[in-house]
Write a structure and sequence with these properties.
The complex is a heterodimer.
Chain A (H helix, E strand, L loop, with lengths): L2 E3 L4 E5 L4 E3 L2 E3 L6 E7 L6 E6 L5 E4 L2 E4 L9 E3 L8 E8 L4 E3 L3 E6 L1
Parallel strand pairs in A: 2-12
Antiparallel strand pairs in A: 1-4, 3-9, 5-6, 5-10, 7-8, 8-9, 10-11, 10-12
Chain B lengths: L4 E3 L2 E4 L5 E6 L6 E8 L3 E9 L2 E5 L7 E7 L2 E6 L8 E8 L8 E2 L3 E5 L1
Parallel strand pairs in B: 2-11
Antiparallel strand pairs in B: 1-3, 3-8, 4-5, 4-9, 5-6, 7-8, 9-10, 9-11
The chains are: A mainly beta, B mainly beta.
Amino acid sequence: GDSVTQTEGLVTLTEGLPVMLNCTYQTIYSNPFLFWYVQHLNESPRLLLKSFTDNKRTEHQGFHATLHKSSSSFHLQKSSAQLSDSALYYCALTGGYKVVFGSGTRLLVSP
Amino acid sequence: DAGVTQTPRHEVAEKGQTIILKCEPVSGHNDLFWYRQTKIQGLELLSYFRSKSLMEDGGAFKDRFKAEMLNSSFSTLKIQPTEPKDSAVYLCASSPGTGDQAPLFGEGTRLSVL
C-alpha cells in the first residue's frame, strides 16, 4: 500500500537558520497528491502546502516544497526559521483513495 | 465557512464505560476519517468512510472501537469498553474525495480515561 516516510522525528534549529524537513513516499499511483500539514500546540493539523505537479515549486506562508516524482520526494523548506514555526509537521499522500500520513516531524526553533 | 465540528471537546470517562464521540463533516464532502493522536504513536487511522460506506476499519482497533456514518452529515465513534490506554486526542477529518483531496480536520476531542 501507499506509505510516507519522515525520517526525522525531531529537528532543532536556531532562529534564522534554514529549515528542511524530509518526506519521501511510495505509491502505485502515477499522479498522487502530496500535502504538508502543520500542527501547533493544542491545535489540530491544518493544511500548509499541497502539490500535484512534478518539479513545480509550491509556496505558502514562507514555506516551499517541490514534488519530485523521480525521487518520490516532497521536502519542506524555509529560508529562515522563526520561533513561531515550532510545531509538528506531517507529510501526507493520496492517490485517489484514502490519505496516508507520515509519522510527523517536530520542529523546535530556539532563540 | 462551516468546518468539521466535533463534540464534545473534552471527555472524561471511567475505565469500562462506553463513550460516543460525534463528528459533523463539511457539507458536500464524501470522505470522512477518524484518527487517534498520541505523542508516541502520532496519527493512527481508526476508520475511513467514502460516501457513507466503511472503506477501512483500523485492524488494531476493531475490537472496542466502532465508527458509524448513518447519514452524510454525521458520524459517531463508539469506544466500548474504555481503557486508560485509550486516553488520547480523537480527530475527525473530511475531504471532497475527488480532485484536491486535502482533508480538513476538526478541533478534536480530548479523551481521558481514569
